[in-house]
Fold this protein.
Amino acid sequence: MIAENLQVLKKRITARCFECQRDQQEVRLIAVSKFFGTNAIIEANRLGVTDFGENKAQELRDKYEILGDKISWHFIGNLQKNKVKYAVRAASYIHSVDSQILANEINKEAKKLNKVQNILLEVNTSLEATKAGLLDKTEVMKLVKHCTTLSNINLVGLMTMAPLTDDEKIIRKSFADLRNLKDEINQNGFDLGELSMGMTNDFEIAIEEGATMLRIGSAIFGQRNNITDWRQS
Ligand SMILES: *Cc1c(COP(=O)(O)O)cnc(C)c1O
């Protein structure tokens, strides 16, 4: 099933890149493997997927123990301070940094490992109170500047989740807002390249609005509804 799903997905990504005249090379596919077992990851990896996303620190730690660095790991979930060490050990990128405290902790753990940790700042473009992420431009700018003072952090871009809605206009606005924010930051002398946006239900809009990292789970691995433990899946 993963092989067929990937084939269909890649066709859709290629088609949409072509339609909006984007180079597909600059749109990286991150397969979100949360809840799914290591066999699913190995299968997708054999089919050419190199980047995988996880949203729980312990789950990432355990999968990393099994699969190691042959996978490029992305941490995309809410990160508690006491679990930062697991994410830093495993992840090539941490997408979900939304506070100075968290950035400091990541910097501290990265220093211990003699590593420079790639991070993105999570922005709440939908302004939904239940969502994580920085809420306004001033906050984002402040954290961008703070990150330049942290020697073991490399800030590469911004991440967002669109609101849960069928209204394409609202989704598009959320992605466009993130892109405009990145452009504005870069006009202030920074050089952020990455826009992590777009999931199973909205990745085509995200491609049109400039996404460089798509985080796609169910379109590759199937529905997560009935899975409670990845070791049994
Ligand atoms: C689960 C998750 C995804 C992938 O969601 P799908 O709808 O399955 O593609 C993307 N980003 C984040 C932050 C997630 O938690």
